[in-house]
Amino acid sequence: MNFKPSIHGLLPEDLEAFCKEKGQPAFRAKQIFDWLYVKRVSSFDEMQNLPAPFRAQLAEQFVFQCLEKIETTGGSGETQKLLFKLGDNELIETVIIPAPRRKKNTVCISSQVGCVYGCAFCASGQKGVIRNLTAGEIIGEVLEVANVLGGRPDNVVFMGIGEPFDNYDEVMKAVRILNHPDGLGIGARRITISTCGVVPGIQRLAEEGLQVELSVSLHAPDEEVRAKLMPVNETWPMAELLDACRAYTEKTNRIITFEYILIKGINDAPEQARELVRRLSRFPSRVNLIPLSPVEEFDGERPDSETMKTFFQILEKAGINTTLRDSKGSALKAACGQLRARRL
Ligand code: SAH
């Protein structure tokens, strides 16, 4: 990529280094951060307490708007899907999921253009990966959502397009920017990173000392079914993945949430629920059951509600904290796994 870096990809310490380089006092960094994330201005010109020549230097070096909203699907107060064009004309999608009763908004963000893993049931990976998003672009998604909502979102989940652990450094930088108390101040526990099972990413995250939530897309009770649904299982088989998960929980004292899409006749039998219980019994975990969202390329169906309830109850009775998630946004093609990398 040969376009200018985004101002939103910088931590306060990076901004400080820039200020120093330009002969400005260090406190300017805090002023800039405040304009960006507390006042949420949309241009350098609005940063009134900075000297004009310094604003010009910033504008020369950095872009302000690194993504352009070109389409919004859904209305305010309901699930909304935003389509963004990036500086190199690539497209990504971001979803806003409101919980009106709790007055909380969750934003589901993308971390890559496309995805390399090609899970059978997921639209995002059907055409491979094109590139990683920069931290600035990831923050850009959240800020655009903050503009739509008129305030920062309450929760951020890396469950849009892409595999966050394949873009580890930029994702972590984005997490630190989102989390920074001088900026948006989104608590680490309100930020969830979801992985399809990239073991080295789980191992690295265990060492970060961050309180972020980790979600692992499991989707099957055994190696065979998982390998059929998720080619990633060849690289990191389920046994290895679960070992890494156990090590993660031991190291961090945090619980992992396992995502499990229910697909009729494939992974929804009571025996499979019991197998899942056995697999997860070695460490503390939660399970999120998700009825399959329809995707053109995959001819699976969601099970009937009785089957899903039985599956749910087997996990619950075994003492695993389980939710049967209603996948929001299906009609908009904004539900889990329905986001796809599109091209203009
Ligand atoms: N690559 C990461 C993050 C993106 S996917 C991961 O795999 O976790 C976010 C969630 O949507 C994952 O749990 C994914 O498995 C789920 N998902 C994908 N396709 C889906 C579909 N058709 N129906 C329901 N959930 C789906």
Strand and helix layout:
Elements: H1 12-21, H2 27-37, H3 52-61, E1 67-73, E2 80-86, E3 91-99, E4 104-108, E5 112-114, E6 129-132, H4 135-149, E7 155-158, H5 168-179, E8 191-195, H6 199-206, E9 213-217, H7 223-229, H8 232-235, H9 238-252, E10 256-262, H10 270-280, E11 285-291, H11 305-317, E12 321-324
Parallel strand pairs: 4-7, 7-8, 8-9, 9-10, 10-11, 11-12
Antiparallel strand pairs: 1-2, 2-3, 3-4, 5-6
Helix pairs in contact: 1-2, 4-5, 6-9, 10-11
The chain binds S-adenosyl-L-homocysteine.
Residues 121-122, 159, 163, 194-196, 217, 259, 261, 290, 292-293, 295, 327, 336-337 line the site of S-adenosyl-L-homocysteine (SAH).
Which architecture of the largest domain would the CATH scheme give at its second level? Answer: Alpha-Beta Barrel
What is the subunit organization of this protein? single chain
Order of helices and strands: HHHEEEEEEHEHEHEHHHEHEHE
CATH topology title of the largest domain? TIM Barrel
Percent of residues in β-strands: 15-25%
Give, in spatial order, the strands making up the sheet with the most strands. Answer: 1-2-3-4-7-8-9-10-11-12
Residue-averaged pLDDT? 93
Bound small molecules, deduplicated: S-adenosyl-L-homocysteine
Low-pLDDT residue spans = none
Helix content: 25-40%
* Overall CATH class of the largest domain: Alpha Beta
Give the name of the CATH superfamily of the largest domain.
Aldolase class I
Integer-rounded radius of gyration: 21 Å
